[in-house]
Amino acid sequence: MDPLEWNCARDETGAKCLSSSQIRLCQGLVLHDSHAEILALRAFNRWLLEECKSMLTHSQELSSRDKEGIGCQLRNDGNGQISPFLEWRVSRLESTSAIPGNHAKELLWPPFKLKENIRIWMYCTCAPCGDASMELCMAAQDDPTPWDVRALDDAATEIESDLTKGLLDGRAHFSVLGAVRRKPSRADAEPTLSKSCSDKLAAKQITSLLSFPASLLIAPSPNAYLANLILPEDEISQVACERSFGNGQTGRLRELNGRKWQDFGASARLDSYYAFFPFTVRSLPMEQLSALWHFSKSKDAGLPASKSSNKSAVWTAASSFGAKPAYTSFRQKQSTGRASKSIPKTFPTNIIETILNGVKQGYRITSPDARKASALSRAKMCELLCDIVKLLPEVSVGYYQSKDGCPVNENEASRKRLDDRSEMGERFAHLKECVVSSPTYFLMKRNAEGARLLHLRKQALEDVRQTLGNWIENRGDEQWTLGPAKDKNV
Questions:
Q1: 176/170 Cα distance (integer angstroms)
Q2: Mutual angle of helices 423-432 and 441-450, in 10-degree steps
Q3: Is 160 a catalytic residue?
Q4: SS3 of residue 388 by DSSP
Q5: I need a surface site. Which of 103, 134, 256, 303 has the fewest CB within 10 A?
Q6: How many Å apart are CA 252 and CA 248, to the nearest integer?
């Protein structure tokens, strides 16, 4: 993608999460964490899955047309690629002369990757809750006297009982820095085990932005990580950001510098591995923010106090091969008589939802109606994953890519099959078995790890949690039956 070409994949608001006692009621249909940053990550992964499905469906349509003699008529980005954002991961085999301009290519696992010229940016209207905002919270207190700031190791004795019982509260123990914290809440609220946005974003610097479903399809290449986080300049504490996210001497993940989680041997690929990729925190001048965003929280004591909404808004762009392909420019000229004016050019919408307490507005968490589930919920994401996996080529059947970029099924091209015993063939077989045949979400994840589909991601995540310390998992929403959300009995 051209450096000046921007595309908004998703846009979210939100500031709520579920208490730990509510998790067992979710059954994969309820969002645990509705903070804007986390919704943005989930929506981004939903959009990636939709893009994968769109590519596979489009490829099958093109193959069918070619079989009928219609030929490959591609809607592309002008570079001969069938998606502006994703591409196939293939290994070139021997060339074939049966079809001029065609080369046999083995489809690798994971089958997709982000294009090398893609960079991912995130904009937040306020600092992520948790460690990255501790200094800002201190400065906002009525008594601005500096706190006795100590690192987590030095304050271990003081908070030992809290660490034993659970996570640090989001707005407690301001003198303890670098610690994993729960989402902030009112003092009288039932506690949650959802980790702060600072902690989750820090972990994503090692595990990439790809969630569990997306990791089964898309390679964790270096550009699958967040490149830049943009914050209003008044919402940035350089000390806090360097500690929370950086890889310098004060960075809490610094001991993971230089580490790589990568396969060796036949599975080793230069475009697929996990490592520590710290993102850059960039500032947005307050003057520019005021001109662009009129709804930010005012610091003027003379104005009425504002209150955050308990509702979350979710929007994602359409996939490249949807009914209306996503645009990549923001403004267009419109002529009205003699005058001409510039108007915003909106992106075609794929998903637009209003979420309240983890479900779509109009439903309750305890509602037996599965229609309450957001498109970002575990159940809906797994349902989409299953649809995509069913579209993948059969085990050990590669595809041929013509010079026009049109994938052609190997059987149709009368080429010999790839070796059924090949490692890639086995992984595709395991992928289909895990996703399509596993009865529950818990077993699907366990089977995927057992089949070494996600063993690197699991190890990287375990090392991150060990390094951060006191990472208590938010368990209780795993033992639900896979299948279409509409068929679930809640």
A1: 11
A2: 170
A3: no
A4: helix
A5: 303
A6: 9
Whether residue 413 is predicted with pLDDT greater than 60 in this model: the reply is no
pLDDT digit string, tens, across residues 70-102 = 333 333 344 445 788 999 888 754 433 333 334
Rounded Cα distance, 195 and 184, in Å: 9
- CB of 321 within 8 A of CB of 58? yes
Catalytic residue among 37, 50, 106, 235: 37
Structure tokens that stand for 154 in this block: 């030095």
Alpha-helical regions (H) of 13-35: none
Q: Distance between CA 71 and CA 73 in Å, rounded?
A: 6
**Hey, which residues does 407 pair with through a beta bridge?**
401
More confident residue, 97 or 365: 365
What is the reported pLDDT for 217?
Answer: 96
Is the bond into 407 cis (omega within 30 degrees of 0)? no
Q: Which amino acid is at 129?
A: C
The tokens for 254 are 């610094």
pLDDT higher than 70, residue 461: yes
Tracing tokens 């009129």 back to the chain, one arrives at 294
Map out the domains of the chain as residue ranges.
10-298+306-487
